[in-house]
Amino acid sequence: MTLNNSNNKRKQKPQAFWLFFPAASLLAALAVPLSVWAVWSGSGWPAGLLGAGHGHELIFGFALALIAGYTLGPQTHTVIYPLFGLWLSARLSWTLFPHSLLAQLLGPSFALLMAWHVVPRFNAAKKWRNKMVGPLILLICLLAVVFWLSTTLAVARTFWLPGPFALMHSAIVGLLLLMTFIGGRLIAPAVAGTLEKKGIPLEARVQPRIESLLILALGCSIFFMVFPAANPLTGILLVLASGLIAVRTLRWKLWLCPERPDLLILALGYIWLAVGAFATGLALLRGQPLAPALHLITIGALGTLSSSVMLRLAWQRSHRKPPPAGEVLPIAALLAIAAFSRFLAGASPFSSPILLWLSASTWALAYLWVTARLLILAKHAKNRRK
Fold first, then answer.
1. Where is coiled-coil annotated (predicted)?
2. Rounded distance, CA 177 to CA 183, Å?
3. Is residue 6 part of a domain?
Protein backbone atom coordinates (compact mmCIF):
# COMPACT_ATOMS: atom_id res chain seq x y z
CA MET A 1 0.00 0.00 0.00
CA THR A 2 2.78 2.43 0.91
CA LEU A 3 4.61 1.64 -2.32
CA ASN A 4 1.47 2.26 -4.38
CA ASN A 5 0.83 5.61 -2.66
CA SER A 6 4.43 6.63 -3.31
CA ASN A 7 4.11 5.72 -6.98
CA ASN A 8 0.84 7.65 -7.28
CA LYS A 9 2.42 10.78 -5.81
CA ARG A 10 5.27 10.55 -8.31
CA LYS A 11 2.78 10.23 -11.16
CA GLN A 12 0.73 13.23 -10.08
CA LYS A 13 1.00 16.16 -12.48
CA PRO A 14 1.09 19.71 -11.10
CA GLN A 15 -2.12 21.71 -11.53
CA ALA A 16 -1.57 24.77 -13.69
CA PHE A 17 -3.80 27.02 -11.60
CA TRP A 18 -1.67 26.66 -8.45
CA LEU A 19 1.17 28.25 -10.43
CA PHE A 20 -0.56 30.74 -12.73
CA PHE A 21 -3.30 32.07 -10.43
CA PRO A 22 -1.08 33.53 -7.65
CA ALA A 23 1.35 34.91 -10.23
CA ALA A 24 -1.49 36.52 -12.22
CA SER A 25 -2.96 38.02 -9.04
CA LEU A 26 0.38 39.47 -7.99
CA LEU A 27 0.89 40.96 -11.47
CA ALA A 28 -2.55 42.58 -11.29
CA ALA A 29 -1.84 43.97 -7.82
CA LEU A 30 1.47 45.54 -8.86
CA ALA A 31 0.87 46.62 -12.46
CA VAL A 32 -2.00 49.06 -11.88
CA PRO A 33 -0.51 51.25 -9.11
CA LEU A 34 2.89 51.17 -10.85
CA SER A 35 1.29 52.35 -14.11
CA VAL A 36 -0.32 55.27 -12.29
CA TRP A 37 2.96 56.04 -10.54
CA ALA A 38 4.88 56.00 -13.85
CA VAL A 39 2.81 58.94 -15.13
CA TRP A 40 1.94 60.76 -11.90
CA SER A 41 5.53 60.87 -10.63
CA GLY A 42 6.92 62.03 -13.96
CA SER A 43 9.63 59.37 -13.73
CA GLY A 44 8.29 57.27 -16.60
CA TRP A 45 9.21 54.11 -14.68
CA PRO A 46 8.39 51.37 -15.29
CA ALA A 47 8.39 52.17 -18.99
CA GLY A 48 6.38 49.13 -19.99
CA LEU A 49 3.32 50.31 -18.04
CA LEU A 50 3.03 53.72 -19.72
CA GLY A 51 0.27 54.47 -22.23
CA ALA A 52 -1.06 51.29 -23.80
CA GLY A 53 1.50 49.29 -21.82
CA HIS A 54 -0.58 48.74 -18.68
CA GLY A 55 -3.51 47.59 -20.78
CA HIS A 56 -1.20 45.24 -22.66
CA GLU A 57 -0.06 43.63 -19.41
CA LEU A 58 -3.53 43.26 -17.96
CA ILE A 59 -4.94 41.73 -21.16
CA PHE A 60 -2.04 39.75 -22.62
CA GLY A 61 -0.29 39.13 -19.29
CA PHE A 62 -2.87 38.89 -16.52
CA ALA A 63 -5.86 37.62 -18.53
CA LEU A 64 -3.84 35.08 -20.53
CA ALA A 65 -2.37 33.72 -17.28
CA LEU A 66 -5.92 33.30 -15.96
CA ILE A 67 -6.90 31.42 -19.11
CA ALA A 68 -3.80 29.24 -18.83
CA GLY A 69 -4.46 28.44 -15.18
CA TYR A 70 -8.13 27.65 -15.78
CA THR A 71 -7.85 25.61 -18.98
CA LEU A 72 -4.51 23.79 -18.87
CA GLY A 73 -5.41 21.49 -15.98
CA PRO A 74 -2.76 19.02 -14.77
CA GLN A 75 0.39 19.09 -16.90
CA THR A 76 3.78 17.43 -16.84
CA HIS A 77 6.70 19.33 -15.36
CA THR A 78 8.27 19.59 -18.82
CA VAL A 79 5.22 21.53 -20.04
CA ILE A 80 4.06 23.63 -17.11
CA TYR A 81 7.36 25.05 -15.83
CA PRO A 82 8.84 26.15 -19.20
CA LEU A 83 5.49 27.71 -20.09
CA PHE A 84 5.32 29.55 -16.79
CA GLY A 85 8.96 30.62 -17.12
CA LEU A 86 8.20 32.05 -20.56
CA TRP A 87 5.22 33.97 -19.16
CA LEU A 88 7.29 35.36 -16.29
CA SER A 89 10.17 36.35 -18.58
CA ALA A 90 7.72 38.08 -20.92
CA ARG A 91 6.20 40.06 -18.06
CA LEU A 92 9.54 41.20 -16.64
CA SER A 93 11.02 42.12 -20.02
CA TRP A 94 7.92 44.06 -21.11
CA THR A 95 7.60 45.92 -17.81
CA LEU A 96 11.24 46.98 -17.65
CA PHE A 97 12.37 47.07 -21.31
CA PRO A 98 9.24 47.21 -23.49
CA HIS A 99 11.05 48.38 -26.62
CA SER A 100 13.65 45.65 -26.60
CA LEU A 101 13.47 42.85 -29.15
CA LEU A 102 13.36 40.32 -26.31
CA ALA A 103 10.26 41.91 -24.82
CA GLN A 104 8.59 42.15 -28.22
CA LEU A 105 9.14 38.44 -28.91
CA LEU A 106 8.57 36.79 -25.53
CA GLY A 107 4.96 37.93 -25.07
CA PRO A 108 3.68 36.67 -28.44
CA SER A 109 5.74 33.49 -27.98
CA PHE A 110 3.97 32.74 -24.70
CA ALA A 111 0.57 33.47 -26.24
CA LEU A 112 1.20 31.11 -29.16
CA LEU A 113 2.67 28.34 -27.01
CA MET A 114 -0.24 28.57 -24.58
CA ALA A 115 -2.69 28.38 -27.47
CA TRP A 116 -0.83 25.31 -28.76
CA HIS A 117 -1.53 23.51 -25.48
CA VAL A 118 -4.98 24.92 -24.68
CA VAL A 119 -6.94 25.14 -27.94
CA PRO A 120 -6.85 21.39 -28.83
CA ARG A 121 -8.51 20.61 -25.47
CA PHE A 122 -11.78 22.01 -26.88
CA ASN A 123 -11.74 20.05 -30.16
CA ALA A 124 -13.87 17.24 -28.70
CA ALA A 125 -16.87 19.55 -28.25
CA LYS A 126 -19.88 18.60 -30.36
CA LYS A 127 -22.18 21.64 -30.19
CA TRP A 128 -21.09 24.72 -32.12
CA ARG A 129 -21.54 26.88 -29.02
CA ASN A 130 -18.97 24.77 -27.18
CA LYS A 131 -16.66 24.57 -30.19
CA MET A 132 -16.25 28.36 -30.28
CA VAL A 133 -14.21 28.45 -27.03
CA GLY A 134 -11.03 27.11 -28.64
CA PRO A 135 -11.07 29.53 -31.61
CA LEU A 136 -11.94 32.42 -29.27
CA ILE A 137 -8.93 31.71 -27.04
CA LEU A 138 -6.78 31.37 -30.16
CA LEU A 139 -8.05 34.74 -31.42
CA ILE A 140 -7.17 36.48 -28.14
CA CYS A 141 -3.72 34.90 -28.27
CA LEU A 142 -3.24 35.98 -31.90
CA LEU A 143 -4.21 39.54 -30.96
CA ALA A 144 -1.08 39.57 -28.77
CA VAL A 145 0.94 38.83 -31.92
CA VAL A 146 -0.89 41.45 -33.98
CA PHE A 147 -0.37 43.99 -31.17
CA TRP A 148 3.39 43.44 -31.49
CA LEU A 149 3.23 43.74 -35.29
CA SER A 150 1.20 46.96 -35.05
CA THR A 151 4.00 48.56 -33.03
CA THR A 152 6.62 47.58 -35.63
CA LEU A 153 6.83 50.47 -38.07
CA ALA A 154 8.15 48.42 -40.99
CA VAL A 155 5.23 46.00 -40.75
CA ALA A 156 2.65 48.69 -40.05
CA ARG A 157 3.71 50.62 -43.17
CA THR A 158 3.59 47.53 -45.37
CA PHE A 159 0.27 46.14 -44.16
CA TRP A 160 -2.79 47.91 -42.79
CA LEU A 161 -3.03 47.03 -39.12
CA PRO A 162 -5.25 48.53 -36.40
CA GLY A 163 -3.50 50.61 -33.76
CA PRO A 164 -2.55 49.19 -30.35
CA PHE A 165 -5.53 50.72 -28.56
CA ALA A 166 -8.01 49.42 -31.15
CA LEU A 167 -6.52 45.94 -30.80
CA MET A 168 -6.80 46.08 -27.02
CA HIS A 169 -10.42 47.20 -27.31
CA SER A 170 -11.12 44.22 -29.55
CA ALA A 171 -9.33 41.91 -27.10
CA ILE A 172 -11.45 43.28 -24.23
CA VAL A 173 -14.63 42.42 -26.15
CA GLY A 174 -13.12 38.97 -26.75
CA LEU A 175 -12.63 38.59 -23.01
CA LEU A 176 -16.19 39.84 -22.51
CA LEU A 177 -17.46 37.00 -24.69
CA LEU A 178 -15.22 34.44 -23.01
CA MET A 179 -16.35 35.54 -19.53
CA THR A 180 -19.99 35.51 -20.66
CA PHE A 181 -19.67 31.92 -21.87
CA ILE A 182 -17.56 30.46 -19.06
CA GLY A 183 -19.40 32.43 -16.37
CA GLY A 184 -22.72 31.09 -17.58
CA ARG A 185 -21.42 27.53 -17.62
CA LEU A 186 -20.24 27.97 -14.01
CA ILE A 187 -23.26 29.72 -12.56
CA ALA A 188 -26.12 27.77 -14.18
CA PRO A 189 -25.33 24.25 -12.85
CA ALA A 190 -24.28 25.58 -9.44
CA VAL A 191 -27.55 27.47 -9.00
CA ALA A 192 -29.57 24.52 -10.29
CA GLY A 193 -27.86 22.15 -7.83
CA THR A 194 -28.43 24.54 -4.92
CA LEU A 195 -32.11 25.02 -5.72
CA GLU A 196 -32.72 21.31 -6.29
CA LYS A 197 -31.61 20.66 -2.71
CA LYS A 198 -34.46 22.96 -1.67
CA GLY A 199 -36.93 21.22 -3.94
CA ILE A 200 -37.07 24.19 -6.35
CA PRO A 201 -36.66 23.24 -10.03
CA LEU A 202 -34.73 25.64 -12.27
CA GLU A 203 -35.96 25.49 -15.86
CA ALA A 204 -33.69 28.24 -17.22
CA ARG A 205 -30.18 26.82 -16.93
CA VAL A 206 -27.69 27.32 -19.77
CA GLN A 207 -30.41 29.04 -21.87
CA PRO A 208 -28.96 28.00 -25.26
CA ARG A 209 -30.93 30.50 -27.35
CA ILE A 210 -29.73 33.46 -25.33
CA GLU A 211 -26.20 32.03 -25.27
CA SER A 212 -26.26 31.65 -29.07
CA LEU A 213 -27.38 35.25 -29.55
CA LEU A 214 -24.66 36.45 -27.18
CA ILE A 215 -22.00 34.55 -29.10
CA LEU A 216 -23.18 36.04 -32.40
CA ALA A 217 -23.53 39.61 -31.08
CA LEU A 218 -20.23 39.71 -29.18
CA GLY A 219 -18.39 37.68 -31.80
CA CYS A 220 -19.28 40.25 -34.46
CA SER A 221 -18.37 43.06 -32.05
CA ILE A 222 -14.82 41.71 -31.70
CA PHE A 223 -14.34 42.14 -35.44
CA PHE A 224 -16.19 45.46 -35.83
CA MET A 225 -14.38 47.01 -32.86
CA VAL A 226 -11.27 47.78 -34.95
CA PHE A 227 -13.27 49.69 -37.59
CA PRO A 228 -14.31 53.18 -36.44
CA ALA A 229 -16.85 53.42 -39.27
CA ALA A 230 -18.72 50.49 -37.72
CA ASN A 231 -19.02 52.11 -34.27
CA PRO A 232 -22.84 52.60 -34.46
CA LEU A 233 -23.35 48.92 -35.36
CA THR A 234 -20.88 47.77 -32.70
CA GLY A 235 -22.64 49.96 -30.14
CA ILE A 236 -26.04 48.45 -30.98
CA LEU A 237 -24.64 44.92 -30.72
CA LEU A 238 -23.07 45.63 -27.31
CA VAL A 239 -26.28 47.18 -25.95
CA LEU A 240 -28.19 44.14 -27.21
CA ALA A 241 -25.66 41.84 -25.54
CA SER A 242 -26.05 43.79 -22.31
CA GLY A 243 -29.79 43.19 -22.28
CA LEU A 244 -29.35 39.49 -23.02
CA ILE A 245 -26.85 39.09 -20.19
CA ALA A 246 -29.22 40.84 -17.76
CA VAL A 247 -32.18 38.65 -18.79
CA ARG A 248 -30.08 35.50 -18.52
CA THR A 249 -28.93 36.46 -15.03
CA LEU A 250 -32.46 37.22 -13.81
CA ARG A 251 -33.76 33.87 -15.06
CA TRP A 252 -31.28 32.06 -12.78
CA LYS A 253 -33.27 33.30 -9.71
CA LEU A 254 -30.13 33.85 -7.67
CA TRP A 255 -32.08 35.63 -4.94
CA LEU A 256 -33.20 32.15 -3.86
CA CYS A 257 -29.57 31.24 -2.97
CA PRO A 258 -28.71 33.60 -0.06
CA GLU A 259 -26.71 30.82 1.65
CA ARG A 260 -24.25 30.75 -1.29
CA PRO A 261 -22.32 34.05 -1.21
CA ASP A 262 -19.81 32.64 -3.70
CA LEU A 263 -22.61 32.25 -6.27
CA LEU A 264 -23.99 35.71 -5.52
CA ILE A 265 -20.57 37.26 -6.16
CA LEU A 266 -20.20 35.29 -9.39
CA ALA A 267 -23.60 36.66 -10.40
CA LEU A 268 -22.44 40.17 -9.48
CA GLY A 269 -19.48 39.69 -11.82
CA TYR A 270 -21.91 38.57 -14.51
CA ILE A 271 -23.99 41.71 -13.98
CA TRP A 272 -20.81 43.75 -14.34
CA LEU A 273 -20.54 42.23 -17.84
CA ALA A 274 -23.95 43.67 -18.67
CA VAL A 275 -23.10 47.07 -17.17
CA GLY A 276 -19.77 47.24 -19.01
CA ALA A 277 -21.24 46.13 -22.34
CA PHE A 278 -24.05 48.69 -22.05
CA ALA A 279 -21.72 51.56 -21.11
CA THR A 280 -19.30 50.68 -23.93
CA GLY A 281 -22.10 50.38 -26.48
CA LEU A 282 -23.53 53.73 -25.37
CA ALA A 283 -20.12 55.38 -25.65
CA LEU A 284 -19.75 54.06 -29.20
CA LEU A 285 -23.21 55.32 -30.17
CA ARG A 286 -22.51 58.76 -28.68
CA GLY A 287 -18.98 59.03 -30.08
CA GLN A 288 -17.48 59.31 -26.57
CA PRO A 289 -14.09 58.00 -25.38
CA LEU A 290 -14.23 54.30 -24.58
CA ALA A 291 -11.70 54.09 -21.74
CA PRO A 292 -14.09 54.79 -18.81
CA ALA A 293 -16.68 52.28 -20.03
CA LEU A 294 -14.13 49.59 -20.91
CA HIS A 295 -12.77 49.77 -17.37
CA LEU A 296 -16.19 48.64 -16.13
CA ILE A 297 -15.46 45.43 -18.03
CA THR A 298 -11.80 45.05 -17.09
CA ILE A 299 -12.13 46.12 -13.44
CA GLY A 300 -15.74 45.34 -12.54
CA ALA A 301 -16.39 42.20 -14.57
CA LEU A 302 -12.92 40.71 -15.09
CA GLY A 303 -11.86 41.63 -11.57
CA THR A 304 -14.92 40.21 -9.82
CA LEU A 305 -15.20 37.07 -11.96
CA SER A 306 -11.49 36.25 -11.98
CA SER A 307 -11.06 36.65 -8.21
CA SER A 308 -14.23 34.62 -7.60
CA VAL A 309 -13.23 31.81 -9.94
CA MET A 310 -9.68 31.61 -8.60
CA LEU A 311 -10.78 31.46 -4.96
CA ARG A 312 -13.65 29.08 -5.72
CA LEU A 313 -11.36 26.61 -7.48
CA ALA A 314 -8.68 26.91 -4.79
CA TRP A 315 -11.18 26.37 -1.95
CA GLN A 316 -12.74 23.38 -3.68
CA ARG A 317 -9.35 21.72 -4.16
CA SER A 318 -8.02 22.53 -0.69
CA HIS A 319 -11.13 22.35 1.54
CA ARG A 320 -13.77 20.66 -0.65
CA LYS A 321 -16.18 23.58 -0.15
CA PRO A 322 -16.87 27.03 -1.64
CA PRO A 323 -15.18 30.12 -0.20
CA PRO A 324 -16.90 31.76 2.80
CA ALA A 325 -18.70 35.08 2.68
CA GLY A 326 -15.98 36.80 4.70
CA GLU A 327 -13.53 36.13 1.91
CA VAL A 328 -15.47 36.94 -1.26
CA LEU A 329 -17.64 39.87 -0.15
CA PRO A 330 -14.83 42.28 0.87
CA ILE A 331 -12.94 41.55 -2.36
CA ALA A 332 -16.05 42.22 -4.45
CA ALA A 333 -16.63 45.48 -2.54
CA LEU A 334 -13.06 46.65 -3.14
CA LEU A 335 -13.34 45.89 -6.85
CA ALA A 336 -16.68 47.71 -7.06
CA ILE A 337 -15.05 50.81 -5.56
CA ALA A 338 -12.17 50.44 -8.02
CA ALA A 339 -14.52 50.16 -11.01
CA PHE A 340 -16.80 53.07 -10.08
CA SER A 341 -13.97 55.42 -9.14
CA ARG A 342 -12.10 54.71 -12.41
CA PHE A 343 -15.30 55.25 -14.39
CA LEU A 344 -15.95 58.55 -12.61
CA ALA A 345 -12.36 59.65 -13.31
CA GLY A 346 -13.38 59.79 -16.96
CA ALA A 347 -11.32 59.91 -20.12
CA SER A 348 -8.63 62.12 -18.52
CA PRO A 349 -8.10 60.27 -15.24
CA PHE A 350 -4.99 62.18 -14.17
CA SER A 351 -7.11 65.31 -13.87
CA SER A 352 -8.89 63.46 -11.03
CA PRO A 353 -5.93 62.03 -9.10
CA ILE A 354 -7.91 61.17 -5.95
CA LEU A 355 -10.37 59.01 -7.91
CA LEU A 356 -7.56 57.45 -9.93
CA TRP A 357 -5.46 56.56 -6.89
CA LEU A 358 -8.56 55.28 -5.09
CA SER A 359 -9.25 52.96 -8.00
CA ALA A 360 -5.64 51.75 -8.25
CA SER A 361 -5.32 51.25 -4.49
CA THR A 362 -8.53 49.30 -3.99
CA TRP A 363 -7.76 47.12 -7.03
CA ALA A 364 -4.26 46.42 -5.73
CA LEU A 365 -5.51 45.66 -2.21
CA ALA A 366 -8.10 43.21 -3.57
CA TYR A 367 -5.53 41.29 -5.60
CA LEU A 368 -2.90 41.28 -2.87
CA TRP A 369 -5.59 39.69 -0.70
CA VAL A 370 -6.34 37.13 -3.41
CA THR A 371 -2.63 36.37 -3.87
CA ALA A 372 -2.11 35.76 -0.16
CA ARG A 373 -5.17 33.53 0.12
CA LEU A 374 -4.18 31.48 -2.93
CA LEU A 375 -0.73 30.82 -1.49
CA ILE A 376 -2.20 29.77 1.86
CA LEU A 377 -4.77 27.52 0.19
CA ALA A 378 -2.08 25.98 -2.01
CA LYS A 379 -0.05 25.10 1.10
CA HIS A 380 -3.13 23.58 2.72
CA ALA A 381 -3.86 21.51 -0.39
CA LYS A 382 -0.26 20.29 -0.47
CA ASN A 383 -0.45 19.22 3.19
CA ARG A 384 -3.66 17.30 2.50
CA ARG A 385 -1.97 15.29 -0.22
CA LYS A 386 0.82 14.16 2.10
1. none
2. 10
3. no
